[in-house]
Structure formats: structure tokens, C-alpha cells
Amino acid sequence: MGLFGMSIPQEYGGLGLTMTEEVKAAFVLGQASPAFRSLIGTNNGIGSQGIIIDGTAEQRERYLPRLATGELISSFALTEPDAGSDAGSLSTSAKRDGDHYVINGTKRFITNAPHAGLFTVFARTKPGSTNSSGVTAFLVDGDTAGITFGARDRKMGQRGTHTCDVIFQDVRVHESAIIGGPDRENQGFRTAMKVLDRGRLHISAVCVGAAERLIRDSLSYAMERRQFGEALAEKQLIQAMLADSKAEAFAARCMIEETARRRDSGQDVSTEAACCKMYASEMVGRVADRAVQIHGGAGYMSEYSVERFYRDVRLFRIYEGTTQIQQLIIARNMIRDAA
Ligand SMILES: Cc1cc2nc3c(=O)[nH]c(=O)nc-3n(C[C@H](O)[C@H](O)[C@H](O)COP(=O)(O)OP(=O)(O)OC[C@H]3O[C@@H](n4cnc5c(N)ncnc54)[C@H](O)[C@@H]3O)c2cc1C
After folding, report:
1. Whole-prediction pTM value?
2. Which pLDDT score is estimated for 3?
3. Is the CB of residue 43 below 6 angstroms from any atom belonging to ligand 1?
4. Of the candidates 114, 171, 213, 246, which lies 20 to 30 Å from 96 by C-alpha distance?
5. Which CATH class is domain 190-338?
């Protein structure tokens, strides 16, 4: 269906969807197990967007067509054991050696790493720097000598997606592996920031899809299951949970559609995309909790999909920037704009 290349331009074999079109696809994808979305997620997100926006013509030709078909799986390697939300403090180093760099360090929780043929690796190129200004983004082929993998992480949910540590030991890459070429040394974080809005909106839309699925499952269960002589759906306390979930999912959908439209018209949506990520990921957590409650004991059993969704959606509040990080972004932007 071309889902690996939703956000990749048509000239490179992708679908070239606008943001408005992509969130519509994500609303639907979110209704299935989140693990399916995750398999295509890294190719559509930062795994390809950095190359599209800042990559050289050669990098685009080399990687985008295979990313668009899914022949090549990409992973985004930013997080480290001691650098999570404060990603700019990362310690993986890339030391210059002639026209090459030698990368050393460990990346943690890297989605799709066991399957990846390409890693976008963030490493410190400015010795002595401690923040994001000394960090460069490299495109590293998965079969490069010196890359090894930790055991697959055992996770609370989304177990159909595989994450693990990726260890870089004396990994040599040519300077042409820097996204955008050697001139873009120390500018890896700028590249990352440019593509974050898209990823946040995509994840937000997946949250809405999952919420809508959970509401549908809850409604049909409540209409079938009878207690005290009538369907659960006739009980006002159950109706309150259904109504709250419906209204919140609808609010999130409207926010996301509006923000996608604004982004497509060329507006800066940094604040709005963070609002969407924060609201939609928290919203689907509440909806999943109510879905389990409406199902009663059955909701706690793995026979019903709400049990899995409840665990799966917990991740959305953590990765691609935690809720607290979204709050910081929103408030900082508010203060900056007011000043
Ligand atoms: C399943 C999974 C897949 C992932 N996939 C990837 C991937 O593909 N690539 C990748 O690079 N990373 C990936 N990550 C990492 C993910 O992005 C990080 O886990 C996330 O950014 C949070 O970092 P941390 O886990 O180190 O938590 P920490 O940064 O240690 O945060 C712990 C808590 O403190 C809060 N906190 C931190 N700083 C502040 C602050 N300034 N103010 C207030 N509260 C704060 C956080 O919100 C959180 O609640 C993945 C994680 C998981 C669980």
C-alpha cells in the first residue's frame, strides 16, 4: 500500500502525502495494534524526514526509494543510557580521523533496531561541548563493522515492535555520511527539530485512532452485556464514561486536523503540535482506562483487545518527547512569543 513511504515525496517512490492526508491515514492505522504502525513509523518519521529536508541529493537518491518501499528499515538512534529527555547531553562521540569519523557509544531503546539497515545516529563531534550545539547526525548503514546489538527489550506493551540497545564500537564512517554533508557538522539537532512537528502530529493521530477503536469496542460491549436486568449502556454512570471518551477523542481529532492544515499552509506549528501530542496521548490513556472499566473483569483479560491497548497506549505519553517535555515546549514558546 506504500505505507512505508507515506511521507516520502513521489519522485523517490513514496506517496508524498500532505500532513492533512497523513494524519487521516494515521487515524485509521491507530485502530489496529500499534505494533503495525510502529513497523512503518521510523521510515515515515525522522528516519526519512531528515534526509528529505536537509539531506544531499546523493543521500536522497541512495536511501529514500528503498525506505519508501520498506526494503530498507531505518532506526533513529538518539536516546542513551544517561541521555533521555535531555538528549542534547548525549555522550556518544564521533572523532574526526582524516576524512572519516570514528563513532563510539551506546544508544538505548532503539525502535526497529534489530531489523534496521540504516541508522540515523546522533553523536558529539565538538569535543568538550555539553549541549546540542556540538552534535551531528550521521547516516550509518546497519552492516557497518563495529555495530552490535543488546538483547531485545522486554516491554509492557507494543511487544510486536522490537527495541534494543545499539552499541557503536570504533564504527568508521566517511564524512559524506553526515546528513546534508560535511558542512552540516554540529547541526544535527537543527535537523532533528525541523522534523519533530510532523512526528508529533503523526503520533497524536495514532492516539486518536486507538481511542476511537476503544470507544467502539466499549460501546458494543456495553450494549451487549446485561446487568441488573438491562444493558450496561443504559446505566448512566457507564454512559458518562462513554460520553467523556467520545468528547475527548473528538477534541483531539479536531486539534490535529486543524494543526495539520496550518502546517500544510506553511505556518510554524511547534506549539500546536506539542499541544496535540500532550493532549492526544494523555487522552488515549484515559479512554483506555475507561474501556477496561466498562468491560469489568473481562477488560482485565487478554482475551479482549482493550487489555492490550491499555498497555500499548501507555508508551505514547513517553516517547517522541514525554508529556512533561511537551509542557515545557508549550510554555517556553508562550513566553517567547509574549516577550
Ligand atoms: C518502547 C520505546 C521505544 C523508543 N524508541 C526510541 C527510538 O527509536 N529512538 C530513540 O532515540 N529513543 C527511543 N525511545 C526513548 C524515548 O524517547 C525516551 O524514553 C524518552 O525521551 C524519555 O527519556 P528517558 O526514558 O530517559 O526518561 P527521563 O528523561 O529520565 O525522564 C524520566 C521522567 O522525568 C521527566 N522529566 C525529564 N526531564 C524533565 C524536566 N526538565 N522537567 C520535568 N520533568 C522532566 C520525564 O517527563 C519523565 O517523566 C524509546 C523509548 C521506549 C520506551
Report:
1. 0.97
2. 94
3. no
4. 114
5. mainly alpha
